[in-house]
Design goal:
mainly alpha; ACMSD
Amino acid sequence: MDASRIATAMLSMPSSEIPLGDTAANRDLARTLNKEGAAIVHAHPARFGLHSRRQPGVPYDVAGSPLPRALPALLDLVDPDRPLYGSDSPFTPAPSASAQARSLAETRALRTPDKQALCHGNARRLFSRLK
């Protein structure tokens, strides 16, 4: 996080971990992950937040390789106040996350205020505890 200049990480349950068709297993997994996530946030409140799947206005996570095609395509569909930078840590190695952050900072697909919104402003607005 520090190497990529990420101030706060939002913890969430990856979609790939949700068992299909098993409501009881989904509920148990969500409770376990929320409990563990809450413990991490409690221990490190300045570094971590917890993202609930139930939150209204859930933004678009810009993770993976959003440039050169995915981010411009997304911005054709939604306003720049919806995407959030997502490093996909720990699944994405730190050097790759740093390179992605750098490419987003340097892209011409976004104006400077929209880059600031993507990298921290949208998260601060959505997760008021981060202000």
